[in-house]
Queue: 2 jobs
Job 1
Amino acid sequence: MPAATIFALASGAGRAGVAVIRISGPWALRVLESLSRQSDFRPRHAKRVDLVNAEGERLDSALALWFPAPHSFTGEDVAELHVHGGRAVVADVLAALGRCDGMRVAGAGEFTRRAVLNGKMDLTQAEGLADLVAAETAAQRRQALRQAEGGLRDLYEGWRTRLVRLQAHVEAGIDFGDEDAGASDPVRHAAIATELAHLGSEIGGHLADAGRGERLRDGVRVAVVGAVNAGKSSLLNALVRREAAIVSPHAGTTRDVIEVAVDLDGYPVVFADTAGLRETAAEVEAEGIRRARAWAAAADLKLVIFDGALWPEVDAASLALVDGNALVVISKADLHPPRAVRMPEGRPPALAVSAVTGAGLACLLDALRREVAARFADGEAPVLTRARHRQALEECAARLARAASEADALELQAEDIRAAADALGRITGRVDIEQVLDVVFRDFCIGK
Ligand SMILES: Nc1nc2c(ncn2[C@@H]2O[C@H](COP(=O)(O)OP(=O)(O)OP(=O)(O)O)[C@@H](O)[C@H]2O)c(=O)[nH]1
Ligand SMILES: [Mg+2]
């Protein structure tokens, strides 16, 4: 049965200069001809048309584009209508499309899903496209674009091809082992062991690098922690340049974790203001402090704030949080004379900052930028971006490790190499695609 012809608004909802409506499936051309009462659409050329509904009423003057299969986004016949982006125009054109025979509204992600099923892209590229649409910073855009253009697919398919070849070598050993030198061929044995080791270390290295890509998708997490009244909320507000958190002279003002997302030189950063650390019998405050500690423990970076009004007296609970992942800040620099701030031996240097005058803020932002860029620099190598990839890669790595220990049991070795290759195939959609399709397209929007 031929697939239904689907249509949807591909551009954002709401008033705009232009809105794009996408149509994909076997009826695309017929519908285009019927709505425009024109024919002779040249492939991939824009044509000005009047769109007319079944009653003969002119709905809009639009641009129409015609992409015959297979040279289209979905691999099917596709038509695009660029209409004026008013709500009524879009609603009426969509209604007219819905009344044409054989047409239905596309489900979430259905255009991209068809593109995957028609071999126009693999699952990692579809995921890259979703990330590209969601990208809010330049670094996110670069990573998503690389993935949408096949960076991860090439890497994973390259490994998979090598594994399939290796499996064939091992199986050749099994087949001929009884008769000739196949299984006992030490050269072949060594070559297989070497390739297994190479693949294992390449995949292991990629996995070790894993956090980078995922963090770039989700944002680098920076916790603002310190004693009560140290000036954490004031500093957060100064960093994000708005009154995101309540500030007061009352100790214990902040209770919940307050997350604020910002774009720091192209990197997505999520700052979290947290409850001040102190001993307390109050249940709600204790819960706030527990959450503060949990957020800090999971954060990529901590800003540990010491109260400048009390400096050089330091709070022990905050000091305990200073480690290699911490930047130390002395607050209220306007209250204490600017002097070299020295931390106890072995601790990173501290930065004096005033949320009131803004002194030291530029230095702190510079330090933050450096820390963020050093941890998450987006190099050329494709990075893993999803838990789905990580799970499959971990299975692949485990199978490879086992295969390496099975040089004397070729059937088992071949089976483990096959399973390792299948794990990679599940990421790209070469293996078990039906089982992962729903997971991959769950978060897509309609019109994609
Ligand atoms: N002079 C001066 N006062 C500051 C500065 N930063 C904060 N304060 C004051 O210090 C007090 C506490 O500030 P907050 O930002 O609420 O401190 P906090 O660490 O969030 O406090 P809790 O949420 O209670 O843990 C307020 O009265 C602020 O006005 C600063 O840079 N200079
Ligand atoms: Mg606060």
Job 2
Amino acid sequence: MKIIAIINEKGGTGKSTIATNLATALHRQGQRVVLIDADQQGTARDWRAASPEDADLPPVVAIDRHQMLASSLAGVLADIAIIDAPAKAESMAAAIIRAAHVALVVIQPSAADIWASAAAVKLIQAKRAIGGEIQAAFVINRASGNTTISKTIIDGAWNDYEGIEQLTATIGNRVVFANAMAAGLSVLDMTDTIAKTEIFNIIKEMETALWLNP
Ligand SMILES: Nc1ncnc2c1ncn2[C@@H]1O[C@H](COP(=O)(O)OP(=O)(O)OP(=O)(O)O)[C@@H](O)[C@H]1O
Ligand SMILES: [Mg+2]
């Protein structure tokens, strides 16, 4: 099972939004996907509870105690587990990075998000330092290229971390992401084709990098 963590200890960067949409898109590609809600806040559970009964969505499983993450994941039967990580939860973030094969660090194009992402970067580097393998990339959410700072962040020039790239695919600031979340659905169920393409592009980029291979 491939374990993909959607992470950043800063609140509100878009982790749950990206996790629910990636999980749904991969599920509809025919993969066995489980969305792991590792956040006591329960956003992914609330999302799934709001879904129409007949919606074609992946199951959501709550594992919100860091001491139980590894053992609970070992009992999950799926091709891909997407972990929706919590904000401000150091022990859980560490457990998630330990378990994950791939980490997507979600940032909005702001200095605050980049500073806050240093905590996730440290965990990734610490795992590698002891011989652990993990693929990692930043993914920009709510990208809008109007200011100099956001342009610099979107084009990746700020990123000099070795071994943590930035995905070329970005997610725009689109109301359809908020609407899909509120409806317990994904942007695949909505009419905004750009939002769907953005999600598919992230998957394509991960496929090309062979990050989704078993
Ligand atoms: N690309 C986007 N376009 C528009 N709104 C967005 C986008 N991404 C996230 N949002 C909105 O921003 C808010 C925070 O998003 P989300 O819950 O996904 O963040 P989070 O990182 O999971 O937060 P937390 O740290 O609290 O778990 C939500 O209201 C969501 O609808
Ligand atoms: Mg969340």
